[in-house]
UniProtKB/TrEMBL annotation, chain A:
Keywords: Metal-binding, Repeat, Transferase, Ubl conjugation pathway, Zinc, Zinc-finger
One Pfam assignment: IBR
One GO BP: protein ubiquitination
SMART domains noted in UniProt: IBR, ZnF_RBZ
Name of the protein in its database record: RBR-type E3 ubiquitin transferase
Family recorded in the similarity comment: Belongs to the RBR family. Ariadne subfamily.
UniProtKB/TrEMBL annotation, chain B:
Protein name, entry field: E2 ubiquitin-conjugating enzyme
Enzyme Commission numbers on file: 2.3.2.23
Regions annotated as coiled coil: none
Catalytic EC class: transferase
SUPFAM superfamilies (alphabetical): UBA-like, UBC-like
Every UBA domain range: 155-194
PROSITE patterns to which the protein is assigned, alphabetical: UBA, UBC_1, UBC_2
Keyword tags: ATP-binding, Nucleotide-binding, Transferase, Ubl conjugation pathway
Active site: 88
Organism: Cynara cardunculus var. scolymus
Origin superkingdom: Eukaryota
Family label: Belongs to the ubiquitin-conjugating enzyme family.
């Protein structure tokens, strides 16, 4: 390295740090990844409820966290390889932001890596000490102070540089790999040049691309797909369930980024979503119920039995339903009316049967699909409604309730938990319909469980929050929530295991206890009128504790009066 | 906004060594955004002896965006549409750089005439023929060069005169010449085939 390069590097760091370390970058001594989850603890209680329920195998990253991590990685590479931060950044981007991959490739063959990324460590072009230099783009001559160069030394005037960089940035994320404008050169143009020569707007865009690259090119991170959410999720690959819940409370499958669909697998979901595209189903419908008029191409529905089709006015074309041939060809010449030669011969070859059979199947499959789709869609909208209610509860009702019951809002968390459970149930229920649709007809055991689940689950979803008999309500709701949660977790596990270890009998006996417990809350309003006698009997057999007759709360064996409502056992 | 200062410089530079390269660029009108380029068919190819005209449109972002170029002369080549004259060439797309010039682009097109890339075709029919039956390809390309790329220096009235002398009625000659854009070879072909 010659001294000029060193100078260059030193400048890099300055401009870089100025730009990157200003403003909102966050410093923290906390090395613990989990720290990221609690950044906004106070603002969002609902996260805790979900977090506590499952062992987290992912980390939610807010924009500041992402920037911080990116900065840290750049710092690390820059220090270890003794290169400028700018170069480190380009290296990392090239190797999908994997620090270890950069190390590996660099120490294996530094020259090769430098070449691939466009990091020159020397240049043959000697800049003149004084006088004028011709710009390689506009071909005008300029004094040296109006000329800039990348590491390669190819001179372009600042106006041309600005236009060159601006065109590239406005072209998209390809600007992150911008090279010198001389095609044979290949020297990288990095963030230092951008900061020097681009407008504020374009600098912002460039930084946005850099940030996006950090998430999108990294194998372990993905953006939260919720509209308007800026968080990303880092996932521990190979650690089980893909379901993740973002700070924004959106739950999605990290693997396929569709809305969370446990217990249904990604493949089924993608099939289902494809299926739902109205177009493909419309095609099926038309296939099953109508044929296009051979003349005007409008679909014509078959009039029962008669093969003689007449298109609607003004077309009025007459044709044969079987072969779509002109009806006038079907007279005596073809063996009399209603006898279609082409149909007969096609039938003999087996060609007709096949197409007619497919038509029949399409019709059946359409009916079946409609059945599942309607239910899937209903649960989808119920879930949306529950989400809206939850939001309303969190933003309005909870404060009111807190005031009225003289209880701190933190004590009312159980209500939010109940709502979250309802939302979750709707989600699971919804996906069981996609699951049900793809269950092979023969697998009766699974189908039975699905139908059973379908019926049972509905009973859990009528609970409504009320302020009457508040303590009763609380205990009942808390108990109900945990019962429901258990039930759903069992169901989800069963579905995930492909039900191989669950027969229909086992499944329905498992549900019966929870069904009874849930019975307490049946009916609109759920004002806590009903008691839970039915549920208590079976649950009290449980060796781990006893369920309160009054409120269904599951008490430990060691206590004799309910910890929730103080009713004696 | 197109950098007209640069375009002006490019035209001067290019036309300076026209005797060596045979390549020229000229404005279509006063407007420097619409130009016409000319390249000679490379020697030793089916395009030899032809003069090929290239329509050039400069986008607002020129030279930071690539110039738009297509063949105005009909040409039989795997990477050039025999219908529209569209050119499949990387430096006219993502490989463009503002340090390149119209002349460099025209030189690249000339090089493309010498070395077709049938595996990245613009015209599938031509590419198929090139790969499966090179002889037929070469003679078709040659025929097209003879028919379309060798415009005589005759004015339109002289062309009319010539064709009328061959025995075709003047009205028909005029309308036919109009259809084929004044190309006397093509007009003769059309007139003969009726
Ligand atoms: Zn310039
Ligand atoms: Zn360079
Ligand atoms: Zn989110
Ligand atoms: Zn998925
Ligand atoms: Zn019709
Ligand atoms: Zn027929
Ligand atoms: Zn109790």
């Amino acid at each position: 390295m010659d001294s000029e390069d060193d100078m260059h590097d030193a400048n890099d760091v300055d401009s870089y740090e100025e730009d990157y370390y200003s403003g909102d970058a966050m410093y923290s001594d906390d090395d613990d990844d989990a720290g990221y989850e609690f950044l906004d603890n106070d603002s969002d209680d609902s996260d805790d409820a979900l977090v506590s329920r499952q062992q987290k195998n992912y980390t939610i990253l807010k924009e500041d966290d992402i920037r911080q991590r990116q900065e840290d990685d750049i710092t690390r590479i820059s220090a270890v390889l003794s290169i400028s931060r700018d170069s480190a950044c380009m290296l990392l981007r090239r190797f999908n932001w994997s620090v270890s991959n950069v190390h590996e490739a660099w120490f294996a063959n530094e020259d090769k890596v430098r070449k691939a990324v466009g990091l020159l460590d020397k240049t043959d072009i000697k800049p003149p000490k004084a006088g004028e230099v011709a710009c390689g783009i506009c071909f005008e001559s300029y004094p040296l102070d109006k000329i800039s160069t990348a590491a390669c030394g190819h001179p372009f005037c600042n106006t041309c540089w600005t236009a060159y960089i601006s065109t590239s940035i406005n072209d998209g994320p390809g600007c992150l790999t911008l090279r010198c404008a001389i095609p044979s050169c290949g020297a990288a143009v990095g963030v230092d040049m951008v900061n020097m020569l681009a407008s504020d707007e374009e600098k912002k865009k460039y930084r946005r691309y850099l940030l996006r690259s950090y998430i999108e090119d990294n194998r372990k991170t993905k953006w939260c797909p919720a509209p308007g959410c800026d968080c990303a999720i880092e996932f521990d690959l190979g650690s089980g369930s893909y379901d993740v819940t973002c700070h924004c409370s959106y739950s999605f499958c990290w693997n396929c980024t569709e809305e969370a669909h446990r217990p249904v697998d990604c493949e089924t979901v993608s099939k289902w979503i494809m299926k739902n595209s109205a177009e493909s189903e419309n095609m099926n419908w038309i296939l099953a119920n109508s044929k296009p008029c051979p003349k005007c191409k409008r679909p014509i529905e078959k009039n029962q039995g008669c093969m003689h089709m007449t298109c609607n006015p003004p077309c009025k074309y007459e044709f044969c339903w079987l072969c779509l041939g002109q009806w006038s060809d079907h007279g005596e010449r073809t063996g009399g009316f209603y006898a279609c030669n082409r149909y007969e011969s096609a039938k003999q070859e087996g060609a007709y049967d096949e197409s007619e059979r497919r038509r029949e199947m399409a019709k059946n499959s359409l009916e079946r699909y409609t059945h599942y789709y309607e239910r899937w869609a209903t649960n989808q909208s119920s879930r949306q409604k529950a989400l809206a209610d939850l939001h309303q509860m969190q933003t309005v009702h909870l404060a009111k309730l807190s005031e009225k019951q003289c209880q701190p809002e933190t004590q009312l968390k159980f209500i939010i938990e109940a709502w979250l459970q309802i939302v979750e149930c709707r989600r699971v229920l919804k996906w069981t319909y996609a699951y049900g649709y793809y269950l092979p007809e023969q697998e009766h055991a699974k189908r039975q469980l699905h139908q059973c689940a379908e019926k049972e689950l509905h009973t859990y979803l009528n609970e409504d929050a009320s302020q009457d008999e508040f303590n009763n309500f609380r205990t009942k709701l808390a108990g109900l929530t945990s019962v429901t949660r258990n039930y759903f977790e069992n169901l989800v596990r069963a579905l995930e295991n492909g039900l191989s270890d669950v027969d229909a009998h086992g499944a329905s006996s498992k549900t019966s206890s929870s069904k009874n417990a849930a019975g307490t809350s049946k009916g609109k309003g759920g004002k806590g009128k009903a008691s839970s006698k039915g549920g208590a009997a079976s649950r009290n057999d449980d060796s781990t504790g006893w369920s309160c007759d009054q409120c269904t709360y599951m008490n430990p064996k060691t206590v004799t009066s309910c910890q929730m409502c103080h009713t004696s056992r | 906004m197109v950098d007209f200062g640069r375009v002006q410089k490019e035209l001067q530079e290019c036309n300076k060594d026209i005797n060596v390269s045979g390549i020229s660029v000229n404005p279509k009108s006063d407007n420097l955004t619409s130009l016409i380029g000319t390249i000679p068919g490379p020697i030793g190819t089916p395009y030899e002896g032809g003069t090929f005209k290239i329509d050039i449109d400069l986008p607002d972002g020129y030279p930071f965006e690539p110039p738009r170029m297509k063949f105005a002369t009909k040409v039989w080549h795997p990477n050039i549409s025999s219908q529209s004259g569209a050119i499949c060439l990387d430096i006219l797309k993502d490989q463009w750089s503002p340090a390149l010039t119209l002349k460099v682009a025209l030189l690249s097109i000339q090089a493309l005439l010498s070395a077709p890339q049938p595996n990245d075709p613009q015209d599938a029919v031509v590419a198929q023929q090139y790969l499966k039956d090179y002889q037929t390809f070469a003679s078709t390309a040659h025929y097209w060069t003879e028919s379309f790329a060798k415009t005589s220096s005759l004015g339109i009235e002289e062309k009319v005169q010539k064709l009328v002398e061959m025995g075709f009625p003047e009205g028909l000659v005029r309308s036919t010449l109009e259809v084929v854009d004044g190309d006397e070879n093509l007009a003769l072909e059309k007139l003969c085939s009726g």
